Amino acid sequence: MKKAQLEMGETIFALIIIILLIMMGLIFAFRGEKATIEEKVDTLGNLDAAALAQVVANLPELIYSPGSVKQQSSFDKSKIQAFQKLIDEYPELSREYYFDKLGNVEIIIEQIYPETEAEPIEIYLNDFDVNDVVMSFGTPVKIPTSIYDPVTNQYAFGVLYVTRYVRK
Amino acid sequence: MKKAQIEIMGLIFIVLIVTIAMLFYVSNSVKDDLNPGIDQFKTYANSELSMSFIEVFLDTSTCGTNIQELIVDCAKSKQIRCDSKTSCEQVEEVAEQILEDTLILWQVPYGLVIEYNSFTNYTNATEDCMPGGQIKGKYPPGRQPISLYPGTAMVELGICVS
Asked: What is the ipTM for the molecules in this complex?
């Protein structure tokens, strides 16, 4: 082997080692970055869900408003039932109507106190078609809320869960 | 190897280093852009959580009245009885039950203080959330004063997320 060929081999070998080291450094650096950015995107998803929760907490179809005056963080149990009935009877129409306001979201309200054996109430769910792969965007945003029962005239302690959905 | 080839290799090496530097710069600026929104969300979420919690807690019906009335009764006359319990005991029992199914379940560190009057108060906090009796945390706690005339009762809930 000639001297020039040996020198070229050495240079190429050194270059390969340098590039490998750089790539390894990049992989480690971006692995850490990826986790941080994913966490931040998750939090921003929650920010969006928190904004949506405010929209839900102000929907006249759901809130308790005696004499047209809105009560702070208070849902009307009978309105929730009526809303569920509406969604069940006209799924397509209601989905289309509320999509503009809420988008792809799941809204659940759960009564915490007094304890009840009833399951949490799913007020609204608009995810994607069954065949689409669906993932939740961030953890559900949880907002304490009153549930007013007009039959018993009692306020229960409840929690509103809002989860956003996105296509995978 | 010819001189020209070595120069090209050097050039490629410089371009590679500049590209890596730019990648780091872009990823850092994206992170900086995300930070204000995240801080705002955390402040909003924690303040909203503590304030909503207190409002809803005070409105909650129990024992033929609501928690706010029970707090007033506990601070002033202690006349209301809930089965065999006093109004103070009922408030504390309901608070514990609600906290168990919400903040404790969600693993959110908290500090709840109900100051009935200058003599009586009730504290319920997760470990390390209230060192020295003060709620620790980055976000301001939710506070709701209740008029007793004379005096004021105070309900305070802090979320101890740093």
From this structure: 0.77
In a domain, A147, yes or no: yes
Distances (CA, A) of A4 to A7, A12, A57, B5: 5, 12, 77, 13
> A33 vs B92, which has greater pLDDT?
B92
**CA-derived radius of gyration, chain A:** 27
Alpha-carbon distance A132 to nearest alpha carbon in chain B (angstroms) = 29
CA dihedral B22, B25, B30, B36 (to 10 degrees): -160
Judge: B60–A157 Cβ closer than 8 Å, yes or no. Answer: yes
**Predicted confidence (pLDDT) per residue in A86-98, tens digit:** 888 988 888 788 8
Domain that holds residue A120: 32-167
Work out the end-to-end distance of chain B between its first and last CA atoms, rounded to an integer number of angstroms.
59
What residues does A106 pair with on adjacent strands? A125, A163
Calculate the dihedral angle through the C-alpha atoms of B57, B59, B60, B66, rounding to the nearest 10 degrees.
120
Dihedral sign for Cα atoms in the order A17, A23, A27, A30: positive
Residue A1 lies in a domain: no
**Contact check, Cβ <8 Å, A112/B102:** yes
Residue A137 lies in a domain: yes
Tell me the pLDDT tens digit for each residue of A25-61: 888 877 777 777 777 777 777 777 778 888 888 888 8
Question: What's the structural domain count of chain A?
Answer: 1
* Token reading at B91: 């408030």
CB contact under 8 A, A146 and B20: no
CA distance A90 to B58: 37
Nearest to B56 among A8, A44, A157 (CB): A157
**Which residues in B lie closer than 8 A to residue A15 (C-beta atoms)?**
9, 13
Nearest to B148 by CA among B68, B84, B90: B68
Nearest chain A alpha carbon to B17: A22
Q: Is residue A15 part of a domain?
A: no
Asked whether the beta carbons of residue B60 and residue A115 sit closer than 8 angstroms, the reply is no
Across the interface, whether the CB atoms of A113 and B62 are under 8 A apart is answered yes
The C-alpha atoms of residue A47 and residue B32 are separated, in whole angstroms, by: 17
